[in-house]
Each structure stands twice: as structure tokens, then as C-alpha cells.
Amino acid sequence: MQVVVCADGREARRRAVVSLELWDKTLRGLQKVVGPWDFSHWIQPVQCDAVDEREREIVLAVPDESHGRWVEDHFAGFIHEQLRLLTDSSYRIRYTTYAERTRPEPADPNPGVRSDQGRLELEPVAPGLSRDNGRDSGPVDFRPGLHAEPGEERPVLNPRYRFENFVDGPTNQFAMSASRAVADHPGTRYNPLFIFGGVGLGKTHLLHAVGHAVLDRNPRARVRYVTSEVFVNDLISAIRTDKMQGFRSRCRDRCDVLLIDDIQFIAGKDRTQEEFFHLFNTLHGSGKQIVLTCDQLPQSIPDMEDRLKSRLQWGLIADIKPPGFETRVAILKSKAEVEGFDLPDDVAHLVARHVTRNVRELEGALRHLLATSRLLSRPLDIHLVNNALSDIIGERLQKIAPEAIIKAVSVDLKVPIADLKGPRRHRNITVPRQIAMYLVRELTDESLPQIGQLFGGRDHSTVINSLKRVEALRDANPEIRSQLDRIRRTLREGG
Ligand code: ADP
Ligand code: MG
Q1: Predicted pLDDT at 495
Q2: Distance (Å) from CA 100 to ligand 2 centroid
Q3: Which of 47, 148, 162, 358 counts the most CB atoms within 10 A of its CB?
Q4: pLDDT in tens, 157-179
Q5: Nearest CA residue ID for atom 21, ligand 1
Q6: Is the Cβ atom of 371 under 6 angstroms away from ligand 1?
Q7: What is the CA angle 12-19-69, rounded to 5?
Q8: Residue 260: beta bridge partners?
Q9: What is the pLDDT of residues 418-438, one digit of tens each?
Q10: Which residues touch 117 (CB under 8 Å, ≥6 apart)?
Q11: At 392, is the pLDDT very low, low, confident or very high (cuts 50, 70, 90)?
Q12: Nearest-CA residue for atom 26 of ligand 1
């Protein structure tokens, strides 16, 4: 009997690994055939929920139904093609949403085949390539009824990029408040609003959020969202096909709010800058709102005409910087919640401590963890993170020896090592001992009984109580939090 259970477990794990690998490879293939914007906005959020090799079916989880429809309509052909290339057979694609997807069930012996419950079935679309449709080619109705005149172009706004889903903190608060103000009173203050910052920090998210908020207040508002790459391409094709009049009228006359993403890409393109300069003047002059994002300050954009640089500085310039630790934790928790996971504090802290550069990487790390947890049917805990995180950030988490942690606690909290490991129960010793246990649990792979052994042969229930006590202290007491942070820092720096 035991043997059968083991074999099932192995088979489940094998299937899970097959699913992860197949989807990873599919993503790599897709990255080569769809544009970078489409890839990051539409494909990357798609997760593989399960692969049924026998039935030739792949279950993909999408943020919500409209995202799924968009993927199905525009990229299903590409996905089918990649799967065919990789497996030599045709796969049926089924969709589910993050919210409807069930959480991992530890007892599920067969994650490859899931029940039909909670699954979203989209209208089948014949497999085939639809690349023409894939590139910002036209309107999509994410919210029926909320758009301008019939026949008017509607912006392609990512339904997830709304103010409600934007976690603010000290490094992005200013940009977020300015964006909100602009959305509440378009064209009246802060025109243009110029948002700048490094990659993956939420510029595009805020830009779409402005578009959503304007349309929420006034469904008839004519909002145009374009990446500057698309702007350049549209302009080139208008020039080539002699349709400049239509291009100008689309941009100038039929637009109340113009959102241009990544304006730095028009640098060095003289004709585009010329056209944009006139567009800017017309819109600004008639009180239409302009919001731009960029990876740098206007004055630093190389190969940009001075008159344009100066106009970009007319309104308000708001920067976004990488989020601090607390905001990173809040972002992780909020994103996990959207996907139906309650991210434990220690897990959120561990990820937030190691993935620091930008929010996109933070999301990538979380996505990988959730997928691993789901596919391996393992709880999302410190151990899973320790195993999975190293793949994502491309470096092994520093292995920290338990003895080094005990020593660091001893030095920092001025309690002899012998007391930390010994039997004394004075509060001056028990709290530091509990802190040491907590950090060993957080930073190493030691099991609860092993931790008990390290601390003078205590049993694992004592260890559990200690961990709980430190969690409570940490939540209630800022001094404990800063002690923990200080000791972690010392350990990371090898001091
Ligand atoms: P940028 O345009 O600055 O390169 P994006 O707007 O594309 O960055 O953001 C990258 C990802 O991170 C997106 O999925 C976005 O939703 C998410 N993101 C960025 N900042 C935040 C935030 N403050 N709160 C929630 N999600 C965020
Ligand atoms: Mg962007």
C-alpha cells in the first residue's frame, strides 16, 4: 500500500514538472514570436495550471475572463503552434481564471487531471495564426457599453491595471496621486503629466489606470492609449500609404485624453518628433490631457529636440522609484490574494528581501512560487521558497549555517550562546532564544525537530510555540522587527 502511495506521489511530481517545463518552453517560444509589449502584458500573466498528456489538454489560468478572451482571440494560434513544435501533437487549450482555480490540495494525488469545477470554457476558436490581430490592432471591448461613439476606437487597456490594484508606498505615492488628480480633472491641471522611472516599476500600470478612471467617470470620453512604438509604426504606415490626414485626425480631433507609453522611443526619429510636437501643441492648446511615461527625465532623453523636451516639462513631472521592503511585502500579499492565496508573512518577507529590483520581478517570483506550489501540491511555505526562489533570481540563496544565526543573535542581543541553548527560562533569555529559533527556521532548511535539537533538545511543539510567539511580538513591537532586520542584515553581509 505504502509503495503505491509513493509511486502515485512520484507520478504526480513528474506530471507537475512536465507541466512546468512544457509551459516554460512554450513561453520561451512565444517570446520570440509576439511583440515585447504583448508578451509582458498578455502572455506572461498566463499560468499553466495542468497538462494532461494522455488527453492532450493544457489548462491555462488567466487573471480574468476578458484577459482569457483576448489571449484566446489573439494568441491561441501561437500557443497551439508552440505546443505542436514542442510535443509533436496538438493540444486542446482550456482556460480557468485565477479566482476560480482551486487551491493546492495536499492530498490530490494527480494534479495533472483536475475536476471540471470552476473552469472557464471559452468559445472554441479554430487553431491558426492570427498574428495580424495580435499587435494593438484595434479596439477590444473589455467593458461592454463603456465606450465612445459607435465605430470610435476604444483603447486597449489592461483590465488589471487599475488604481484599485496599485499598491502605493513612499516611492510611488506622488506619481499615483498625480495620476489620480489628472484622471479626476483631465486637461485642467498637470498637463502634461510626465511619469518617469526604471523598468517594471508601474508606469504602464498607472497610465492604464488613468485611462480606466477617466472612462469610469465619463464613458463617452475619448481616451487614446498608444505605446510610442505603435505611434511610430502608425505614423510610418500613414506616410507610406498617404493617409496622413486620417492619422492626424485620429490623434488630434478624436481624442480627449492621450496616453503615450515609453515616449523615449521617439528619440532620434525626426519625423515622428515633428508630428508629435504638433500633436502636443494642438491637444494642449485645446485643453486635452496628455500623460506620458518615460524611462528618464525629459532633459536627459538623448536625440530629442529641445523644443519637445521643454514641452514635456510644462506640466508635472513625477518619478517612481523601486519600492521599499514594506511596499514589496504589501504588493506580494495583494497579488497573492487576487489569486486566492493567503501568503504567510514569513514567505512574503523572504521573497521581498531577495527580490528587490522592481515590481515585475517581484510578480515573476510570486508567479513561479504559486505555480510550483500548485503543481507540486505543496504548501506555500519557507521551504518551497528556498527551493524555488533560487531558479527565479538566478542565484542560490546564501546558505546560512544555524550556528552562525545563533552566534549573530548572541552578539546582537547580548546573551551568551550557552544560555540560548541552555535550560534557563528568564524572559531576558527566552525571547532571544525564540528569536534565534525563528531566524533559523526562516533562513535555513532545518526541520522543527532539528531546531529543537539545536536549542538543547527541546521538542518540536516548543519550537512551534516559539515561532508563533515571535510572529506575535514582531507584529506588535517595532523594536523586535528592527532587531530581526538588523540580525538578518548582519547575516547577509556575512558579519
Ligand atoms: P513599467 O511600465 O514601469 O515598466 P509596469 O507598469 O509594466 O512597469 O509594471 C510591471 C508589473 O508590475 C505590472 O504587472 C504591474 O501591474 C505591476 N506593478 C508595478 N507597480 C505596482 C504597484 N505599485 N502595485 C501593484 N502592481 C504593480
Ligand atoms: Mg511600461
Answers
A1: 53
A2: 28
A3: 47
A4: 888 899 999 999 999 999 999 99
A5: 202
A6: no
A7: 130
A8: 226, 292
A9: 999 999 999 999 999 999 999
A10: 102
A11: low
A12: 166
CA distance 58 to 112: 9
* pLDDT tens string 90-109: 899 999 887 776 434 333 33
* Sign of the CA dihedral running 89, 94, 98, 100: negative
The reply to whether ligand 1 has any atom less than 6 angstroms from the CB of 59 is no
- The span from the CA of 90 to the CA of 128, in Å, is 12
Residue 54's pLDDT band, with cuts at 50, 70 and 90, is: confident
Confidence of residue 141 (pLDDT cuts 50, 70, 90): very low
From 218, 233, 25, select the one nearest 135 (Cα to Cα): 233
* Mean pLDDT of all residues belonging to the chain: 81
- Residue 205 CB–ligand 1 contact under 6 Å: yes
Per-residue cell: 44: 506572461
Q: How far is 22 from 461, CA to CA, in rounded Å?
A: 41
pLDDT(241) > 50? yes
Give the whole-angstrom CA distance, residue 434 versus residue 467: 7
* Ligand 1 site-directed mutation target among 260, 292, 360, 366, most atoms within 8 Å of CB: 360
Distance (Å, rounded) from C-alpha 178 to C-alpha 161? 16
pLDDT at 143 over 80: no
